[in-house]
Amino acid sequence: METIVLIAAIILAIGIGMRLIHLLNAQHDARIAAHRFSDPLPKPPGLPDDSGHRAHHGDAGR
User: Fold this and answer.
1) What would you measure as the largest C-alpha separation in the chain, in angstroms?
2) If phi over 0 gives left and psi between -120 and 50 gives alpha, with beta otherwise, what is residue 46?
3) Tens digit of pLDDT for each residue in 13-54?
4) Could you tell me how many helices (H) and strands (E) the chain has, helices first?
5) Can you tell me whether residue 36 is helix, strand or coil?
6) For residues 25 and 30, what is the distance between their CA atoms, to the nearest angstrom?
7) What gap in Å lies between CA 56 and CA 32, rounded to an integer?
8) What is the three-class DSSP state of 45?
9) Cα–Cα distance measured from residue 46 to residue 60, given in angstroms and rounded to the nearest whole number
10) Residue 20 φ/ψ region, left for φ over 0, alpha for ψ in the -120 to 50 degree band, beta for the rest
11) Which stretches of 1-62 are assigned E, i.e. beta strand?
């Protein structure tokens, strides 16, 4: 009988822990969604444009 009570207590503790972690993750996700991130920094002048980088070197290894 004591073994059954112990197993039930362990399962209950695991369930409560899972629920607590779920609630904390939901709060964290809501906090991240509400945060306004800044715009990306502009590229400094004088740097080459990397939009065609792969097109020039795509077949170099073949």
Assistant:
1) 77
2) left
3) 999 999 999 999 999 998 888 877 777 777 778 777 666 555
4) 2, 0
5) coil
6) 9
7) 39
8) coil
9) 26
10) alpha
11) none
